[in-house]
Each structure stands twice: as C-alpha cells, then as structure tokens.
Automatic annotation (TrEMBL):
Database matches in Gene3D superfamilies: Bordetella uptake gene, domain 1, Periplasmic binding protein-like II
Full protein name: Tripartite-type tricarboxylate transporter receptor subunit TctC
Family under the similarity heading: Belongs to the UPF0065 (bug) family.
Keywords on record: Receptor
Length: 321
C-alpha cells in the first residue's frame, strides 16, 4: 500500500499548481469591476453602462463602477481597457468606437486585442431642431438651407452620425456650417436655445428637451420608428437613405481575459438585457434592450467595419493620427 500512497501524493503535488492557478478564475469577479465608457455623463453609452452596472453588481455581489473616458472617437476609453492589468475592466461603448473609428483614425492599439461580449441595447438617433424653428421635416430643412446658404449651423455626434449627416448635406448640395462640440449634451443645449439650427444626436440625449417642448424631432435615422416617438418619421421613409443609421451599444473585454470568463460575462449581460425592468427603463430614454452572443456581435461588427470603410473611401477620408 505504501507505494500506491506515494504515487498518489506525487500525482497530487503535480496538479496542485494548476489547481491554484484556476481557482481565482473560477471565482470571477474577485473584486470591483470597472466599466469604461467613451461618452460623457448622460450620453447613451453612459446611460446603458450605469443601468447594467446596477444589475450586474447585484448578480456578481461586488461593486461595479462606471468610469467616463470621452474623447478621440472612443480610443481613449479603449486604451484604458486594454492597458488595465486587473482582469476586471470592461468596455461599455457604442459600436462606432470599434467600427467607424478604425476607418477614420490610425489606431494606437490592435483591434484584435478587444473581443465583443454581448450587445446591450439598440440606440436610436434623431435629427432635431429648436422648437421655435419653422422646420418640421427633412424637406423643410433642405428648403430652409437652400433659401439661406451658409446661414444654418449643424452638429452631429462623432463617428457615424457626423459622416452620414455630412453625406446628407453633400447629396442635397446644401451650404451649411458644421460646428464641433466636445460633448453632444452641449450641442443639444445650444440647439434648444437656437444657437445652432439642427443636430443629429442619440435620441436619449435629445428626448428630455423634446418632451419639455424645447426641441422638435423631425426624423429618426434607424430603419424603424422609435417606440417612444412613433410619430417621428424615419429618414428612410422620408426618402433619404443616406441618413440611415442604426447603432448597437455593447460590451467588450480584452483578448487576454480567458475565454470561459468572457463567456460567463456574456451570459450575465444577456440575462440583464432580458430583465423586464431594464427593458422598461431603457425604453423610457428611447432605447431597446437587446443582448446577443459574442459570435453574433462579432459578425455584426465585421459587417459594419466593411460598411464604414466603403463610406470613408467614398468620402476620401484618410485615417488621421
């Protein structure tokens, strides 16, 4: 019996290092989880990140905090996630940060180092004008811009929105002036006070002022009307396919995170997306909760990258540093 006991002890000692290494991963998360958002407070990614953080904190029984890292078309937030070494840092972002940004900027990191976990919500985007404006449709906007060349100022959120609204301006041969802002919330505030005349921004950003009677929504860029604003026509339905734009908000993790941990996190995010309370709360700010598998999200992102590459080439955009 002694020799068998000795062999057993040798075998046990051999597997102990592997067991020790696997233990921390099986208990993920072990500490506070950070969700990095590329938007300013109040932007669509920030809203989604905070709602999901609240639910994930309960499910994981650890704190889940949101950090805002706006700027550089999402690259600052992505670098923060890829530079983290704690194994507990995720990205909560609009898809444009990983689809549009590579088409217009030279990246200081490898795209392959970031892996999709799950979609979280469908984001609606709206063309809005001041409530005091006489413009009530895209046709009115075109007429007003042609009547007063160079008199109308416009803003669109960075990435996809600014590219598609720029396409709308060019296709219709409009003389309008683009005004840049650091944050979409600042542009929407100025729009409500008629300092600028039209904006293309996330519906979640414009909706509170529209409901307060300070803005008028004249078009939705998504293929389908927004459930919370069913009377606002789609740009496609108004005959302007160049303004068609729909974005997913979703979660990402570094490639360095073990596959089974990413799968576990994806399952938790999908469960939160299916929570009736999350559906209700996102619906009130003009979004639709929608989770997905990593594979589905990856396929969608690949299609979108090809789409934005084509648009960037058609607009002769050369990726900038």
């Amino acid at each position: 019996m002694w020799i068998w006991e000795r062999l057993f002890l040798i075998a046990l000692v051999a597997v102990l290092p592997d067991l020790a290494l696997s233990q921390p991963l099986q208990r993920w998360p072990e500490r506070t989880v950070r969700l990095i958002s590329p938007s300013s407070p109040g932007g669509s990614p920030d809203i989604v990140a905070r709602l999901f953080a609240e639910k994930l904190s309960v499910r994981w029984k650890v704190g889940v905090i949101v950090e805002n890292r706006p700027g550089a078309d999402g690259m600052i937030a992505i670098q923060a996630v890829l530079g983290a070494t704690d194994g507990h840092t995720l990205l909560a972002t609009h898809s444009g940060a990983v689809t549009v940004t590579p088409a217009i900027r030279k990246l200081p990191y490898n795209e392959e180092d970031l892996r999709p976990l799950s979609t979280a919500a469908i984001d609606f985007l709206a063309v809005a004008v001041p409530a005091t404006s006489s413009v009530r449709s895209l046709a009115d906007l075109i007429a007003a811009a042609r009547e007063k060349p160079g008199a109308l100022n416009w803003y669109a959120a960075p990435g996809g929105p600014v590219m598609v609204f720029g396409e709308f301006v060019r296709n219709n041969r409009l003389d309008m002036v683009f005004v840049p802002y650091k944050a979409g919330s600042e542009a929407v505030r100025d729009l409500s006070e008629s300092r600028i005349q039209v904006s293309l921004v996330p519906l979640a950003t414009a909706l509170p002022l529209a409901q307060a009677g300070r803005l008028r929504l004249i078009a939705i860029t998504n293929p389908e009307a927004a459930p919370i604003a069913p009377d606002v026509p789609t740009a496609l339905g108004a005959g302007h396919p160049e303004l068609a734009l729909q974005g997913f908000l979703g979660f990402f993790a570094p490639k360095s995170m073990p596959d089974f941990v990413r799968q576990q996190i994806s399952g938790e995010i999908q469960a939160v997306a299916n929570d009736p309370e999350i559906h209700s709360r996102l619906g009130k700010v003009g979004m639709i909760a929608r989770g997905s598998t990593p594979g589905y999200y990856a396929q969608y992102l690949d299609e979108q990258r090809r789409h934005w590459d084509r648009i960037a080439r058609s607009q002769k955009i050369v990726p900038a540093d």
